[in-house]
Amino acid sequence: MFSIGELSKRTGVKVPTIRFYEQAGLLPEPPRTQAGRRLYGTDDERRLAFIRHTRDLGFEMDALRALLELSDQPDRPCGEVDAIARAHLAAVEAKISQLTALKDELARMVKSCSHGQVSHCRVIEALADHRRCDSINH
Fold this sequence. Notes:
mainly alpha, 138 residues, 6 helices, single chain
């Protein structure tokens, strides 16, 4: 058994975040010493590592909660896990597409800059009037 500070060091998750995950019900409430200090074990460390990796991959809290629930039931078929991962992948691909359009539009705006006066600046014009953009998907 180890302290919340030690759990933080082992997982790279800050102490306030660990407390947040406990309050959100993602981590079970740990036993406490007579002095009221939280005590954690290796199961807590593994669960917190799972949470951190899931969050690092960008999964939202609802998906994380569902994935944790499913991981606690190892004999279930993994179709639900697959569906959650596929939905997240689709969202990431959509975001990449949006960011690519954003990058392309910004590059076009910067390239059109004539380095003259602001009153004739193509960047300012494009920012002021979205219709001057090549894409509406940014």
